[in-house]
Amino acid sequence: MAAACSSKSSAPAKNPLCTGSGRCVTFAKGAAEGDIAGAFSTVAKGDAIVFGPGTYAFTNQLALGTADGVSIVGSGPDQTVLDFAGQKAGEDALFAQSVNDLRFEGFTVKDSPGNAIKTLSVTGLTMRSLTVTWSGAGTPNNKMDGAYGLYPVQSTNVLIEKCTISGASDSGVYVGQSQNVVVRDNEAFQNVSGIEIENSFFADVHDNRSHDNTAGILVFDLPGLKQEGGHSIRVYSNTITHNDTPNFAAMGDIVSLVPAGTGFFVMANHDVEIFQNTFDGNDTGAAGIISYALAQMPFTDPNYVEYPSRVYIHGNTYTNNGTKPDGLNQIGLVLSVGLASYPGGHAPDVLYDGIVDPNAPPGPNPMTICVGEASTTTVCNAHFDMLDMTTLDITKTIVCDASPYACTLPPLPAVTFPGLRP
Question: What sign does the dihedral 74-105-278-115 (CA atoms) show?
């Protein structure tokens, strides 16, 4: 059952969640799916759609109409559950496109066959206090998980905070081809990738807890997309721990190549700063700086630059990483060969693949990779460019010497945009 009230009335709004400037449409447990879908498709500027406590089951995607200033609000992620286990149509559970000032807050999205919440070309997006989960999260060989949890694409002024995401077969939090992004104070676990920033400009990823995924946090750039040259990314003050879940991504997805036990890597981006993070118990390795060439996936895009540059990693804490690289993955298998010969008897805390842009100026550090870590941190150039793929014996190419990377880069500025609060 739905009810409508206007915040313009002289009477105070009965529901404190009705904070929009337009209509307030409320739903209680037992509301008809058709009524909810109709409210989504016919929203007007400033409307709020509010869900009371209860579980709401859906068989179709909820697609939002093209009105600005809309809020989709629940009574709290432990109170309001939108259940899509029976969904038969649509690639996403919730979808919105080409709107401004959109907010999702205070509910759970459960068991979407596809992506949970996808937005495309949204300016001014807030995702706050949401839970996205799949019932089979963490179950070996589970095939029921959707690809992405929170999934903004080609969007601007994006804030994702205080959300919990588990079970995504690609990424729990994924932000792609976007600008001015803040991802903070979230928890991601039992996903393939906990948090992923792809082909984006100006992003701050901080104070998140990414644990028990295949990989904790990934920052990368791919060819053939509308926005390329990902840059100005800060990853800081995160805890990235025990990301050792076996990779369950669909074959052919780029993240299917990621070894279980990966804490963090940056691939093919420039101007990236990684600092004050805690890396613990990531079995393959804590942090990597790699080229797209390592993926061994050919591309024809003439504008794409596949090499990382101007990457500054400093002031992080490393414990118990790289002790058991993923032998089912080629990169993990390479790292596992001769493991005892590495400093400390484990794969490097900071691993650089050593693949250099042939057009870069000569020198010991042509891509300006800067590492400012404690002396106990193992820093190695694996020189994958010289690796014999018939033997995979990295001990013949790896050089564990931090001195070529003993440089600093200016701190990247904090991301700001209208309406963003500390």
Answer: positive
Confidence of residue 138 (pLDDT cuts 50, 70, 90): low
Alpha carbon distances (Å) from 158 to 104, 219, 346, 383: 12, 16, 38, 37
CA-angle at 145, arms to 328 and 90, nearest 5°: 135
| CA distances, 387 to each of 230, 392, 394 (Å) | 28, 7, 6
| Residue 395 in domain | yes
Residue 152, domain member (yes or no): yes
Which DSSP helix (H) or strand (E) runs through 336?
Answer: helix 330-336
Q: Where are the alpha helices (DSSP H) in 42-102?
A: none
Nearest to 102 by CA among 60, 62, 156: 156
DSSP calls for 14-36? SSTT--SSSEEEEE-TT--HHHH
Q: Is 85 exposed, middle or buried (0-12, 13-18, 19+ CB in 10 A)?
A: middle
Q: Which domain holds residue 274?
A: 114-405
The span from the CA of 204 to the CA of 290, in Å, is: 20
Structure tokens at 2: 């739905």
Q: Distance between CA 263 and CA 306 in Å, rounded?
A: 21
Residue pair 199/225 in contact by the 8 Å Cβ criterion: yes
Instruction: Give the pTM.
Output: 0.94
For the chain, what is the domain count? 1
Residue from 255, 277, 261 nearest 214 by CA: 261
**What pLDDT digit, counting tens, does each position of 377-399 carry?**
999 999 998 888 777 788 888 99
Q: pLDDT tens for residues 266-307?
A: 999 999 999 999 999 999 999 999 999 988 899 999 999 999
Beta bridge partners, 161, equal 128, 184
